[in-house]
Amino acid sequence: MAIQRTFSIIKPDATKRNLTGAIIAKFEAAGLRVVAQKRIQLTLAQAQTFYGVHSERPFFGELCDFMISEPIVVQVLEGEDAIAKNREVMGATNPAEAAEGTIRKEFALSIGENSVHGSDAPETAAEEIAFFFSGLELVG
Ligand code: ATP
Ligand code: MG
Hints:
Shape: globular
Radius of gyration: 14 Å
Strand content: 15-25%
Largest sheet: 4 strands, antiparallel
Number of strands: 4
Bound molecules: adenosine-5'-triphosphate, magnesium ion
Helix content: 25-40%
């Protein structure tokens, strides 16, 4: 596998509990490098666009309200097989099903307030990076 980039969000439940550094430490320990990062607060329209794929799901409103409730940290992570590796370090969507040592097992509060987002494929990674970062922010 080649070096890849993936898009990551440290979600409101985690920024609120001051877990940004603890979560970054998990990424770095797994060999993922933070190559771009910023702390922002989404508008409702931005959250609805970002999670548009879930617009018909029953939890869509709850998810968007949660994502705008506090600032988030958006990141580009780089490394060998970064997309799959990030998903592995994050753990299952539902923390009750997440493996020991994963971010969601350790930090997530519930299936909704689950501390992190990570892209699920090369196409979504490219789209999500471009949604949040300009070319100038992605040097090197
Ligand atoms: P993400 O896309 O955030 O990385 P994921 O790929 O593991 O998470 P998805 O199925 O894409 O999970 O769901 C997107 C997000 O929607 C989840 O991370 C979670 O915050 C929320 N979500 C998913 N299922 C539920 C549910 N049943 N109830 C409430 N919120 C949910
Ligand atoms: Mg997803």
